[in-house]
Amino acid sequence: WLSLQGLDSTFAARESRCDGCLIAWRRSLFNNAGELTVHYDPARVEIPVPEMVASRFTRYNNALIVELAPADGHSGPRWIIATTHLYWGAQHEDVRCWQLKVLLERV
């Protein structure tokens, strides 16, 4: 469906889930110049943390970062676009803040 609308896209599935993050762009205006999937779980980020912290922060959330460059025949700046799944738990503001920190370090 997206292709029929003149869009290209990239998708990063969440681990052990059926959803994920998607970024789409107008094919006539931009090309994908690079992309990165960010996994927030401590084991995937390779940050040593105590087991109790690791179990609290393991939520299978991720982010997708795409660098878009002007398509052939177009000029202009490159864009860095990011979208994310942050953990929603009301008692887990620390988890959301940590996930956002990891995302911003990657951007």
TrEMBL record:
Q: Name one GO molecular function term.
A: 3'-5'-RNA exonuclease activity
For this protein, the record's SUPFAM superfamilies field holds: DNase I-like
Tell me the superkingdom of the source. Answer: Eukaryota
Cross-referenced PANTHER family, in alphabetical order? CARBON CATABOLITE REPRESSOR PROTEIN 4, ENDONUCLEASE_EXONUCLEASE_PHOSPHATASE DOMAIN-CONTAINING PROTEIN
Q: Under which name does UniProt file this protein?
A: Uncharacterized protein
Source species = Noctiluca scintillans
